[in-house]
Write a structure and sequence with these properties.
mainly alpha; Chromosomal Replication Initiator Protein Dnaa, Chain: A; globular
Amino acid sequence: MSAPAVCVLRAGDRPEAPALRSARAMKIIRAVSDSFGFSPSVVTGPDRTFSVSWARQTAMWLVRRETGLSNPEIGRLFGVRDSTTVLRSLERVERKLAGDPDLRRWMNGMRASCAARPAGPPAAAGDAEARTAIARMAHELITMRNRLDEMSVRLSELSRAQSETVKEILND
């Protein structure tokens, strides 16, 4: 049996259902993506360029701090197979935060903007079902986007191979 996910609660916070935490995580991913000038699909995708990787690691750190999702849950949101990748990302951000006051200020601003939650009465039972369905659809969309990215890479490889074959034929 796996251990339950731990949610870090602050004074006045209410425990949240996993679907709501996933929805909050998607809000954070969108906010970080906008801040870095990328689309959420780029930040959660496989791109390993420095700027995209840093945006992804920052988003992972904020998701962890603001939602309390576990490393494997965060990994699933970002299409990461191994939760130790999430752990290493969190550690990298922590190291940078320790030595960069400008980064700490920026991160605190992001946390403040992402922490705003809608006010109002507790959600009705139907709302929980709707949030669960939305979280499931969000996960499916991320999975489909990852598959599309993989197909795009494969198509590029095939196109490159075809170009090389045509060059060989023309040179013969």
